[in-house]
Amino acid sequence: MTKIAPAFGVPPTLRQLLSGTALYGGSVYRDLYCILGNTWSDLIVDDRDGLIESVGGSRTMAEILRGIWTTSARMLDNKRGHSRLDLRVLHTNVLCSWTELRRLLDQRPAIDIDFDWQHGLPCPLDELRWRMAHHLLMMGEQSAVGEVVGVCWAYARRPGEGQAEILAAATGAELDEGAYSPRPIPGGEDLVDVLAQWRERGQQAILEAVAQMRGSIREAVAEAIQERPKPMTVLAALRKQAAEAERPAPEPEGPGLVVLASVSHLPGSAKDGESKTTSASNPRIEFAPIAGKRLPLVPVPDLARVQRVLAGEFPDAAQIITSILASLAGRPYVRLPPLLLRGGPGTGKSRLARRLGEELGLAVTVYGAASVADGSFIGTSRQWSTGRACVPLQAVKRHGFASVLVVVDEISRAGTRLDNGRLTDGILALAEPETARAYHDPYLECATDLSGVSYIATANSTEGLDPALLSRFRVVDMPVPTLASLPVLARGLVAELRRERGLDDRWLPDLTPGELDLVAEHWRGGSVRTLQALCECALDGRHAGPAN
């Protein structure tokens, strides 16, 4: 479906949207305009009385429909293209209408809703509500995740078109707890095909479960015929395969570290170093692949090259970068001493921490500490249903390296109550080298060697932080970006925007001198976030054309 689709064509049904069909016209406003006109024709002729009658006499409901209709019509009438501000206004209007629509529909007796659904008589207003939730999810609205997942399960339980695809999407959403990657659809006006990501994850899990079931069937058949005589050639081949399977994997070249010695003390049958494809999940199966294995440590790269790259992206922090990298000189592998980057909002602390890890070759895990009100960072016991290993150990298992970087973002905003533990208390043990070499993980209930993990924390201020924490972290003040660094900072921000959008410099070139001068009129130094917004406005202005 293209953007030149007629205003009143045949829009896809909600079931078709959930199973992967594209939006009518490729946009939210075209799809809403079309479905509203097809369902409530009184909107086309502006018959308010007829519209009120068609929604059961509710003037409020009629005004909600007219509001959505008007918003979609304005977007449709805009022939010059839509700026990011236009799309944000659309997002806000659809969200407000959807919220009010939910409130009104939820006032009905639950027995009426269930009766209509069980007998295949869904209310058009319910269909519109669920459709709008689907659209909001594509626009990145987190509050719509729960409703869309519930709708997917409801449609997956009813036989019909696309049932397998909807079931896979619902399964994937549950497995990933509603998480998704914000990858925009090419040419989709910042829309994200969340259901496609969930569907892919669910299909993968279903295929793994089928493979596991087939493997169980094969084992049962093999046990049933094991007493039959086999030719010696077959026995010899089986012995050779068994010997190869038991042969230990080659040790990685270069520096390495055994993070987890064994999982044999845990319930289950998985062996150390064994990877199983199974739908079951327990600590032994989860961590067996790295148990007893010598995981590689990232060797120190060319520090001069790293310094040049980072100083080019953060010119005001060149001295800080040189000082941080100096601690790695002469080391066989990358392990940074605990750092705390302190600076005002928008000075680029988090971005510098992430880019530092990337250029050093470390896998980076960013842990948002703002509003964290417990000590789950250090792991939780298996006696709880939500038990999990500590964050550094999860990062090691996920990336397969003993040296990784954990960025604890906004550590000064973590909760300070003691009833569920404090984040800052847990980091004390992990940031101490001697303790980290034999850290007792509460989930695995054994010692783990996390001495190869590096930690960088960020904070607007160190006021109120535990002195014991500050004694373990080297506090580095992040300088405020200056106007003189504008060209370099803008070049780095545009490059990052290119990576996010999947474009190259031919489609999204750097800001021109004229555009830089325009940005400089509104940014005289300070927050990089403000500079990023101004750069995006300048880039979007290329497509808007000259002002009338």
Automatic annotation (TrEMBL):
It comes from the Bacteria. Pfam families: AAA (PF00004). SUPFAM superfamilies: P-loop containing nucleoside triphosphate hydrolases. Residues 335-482 form the AAA+ ATPase domain. InterPro entries: AAA+_ATPase, ATPase_AAA_core, Lon_Prtase, P-loop_NTPase. This is AAA+ ATPase domain-containing protein.
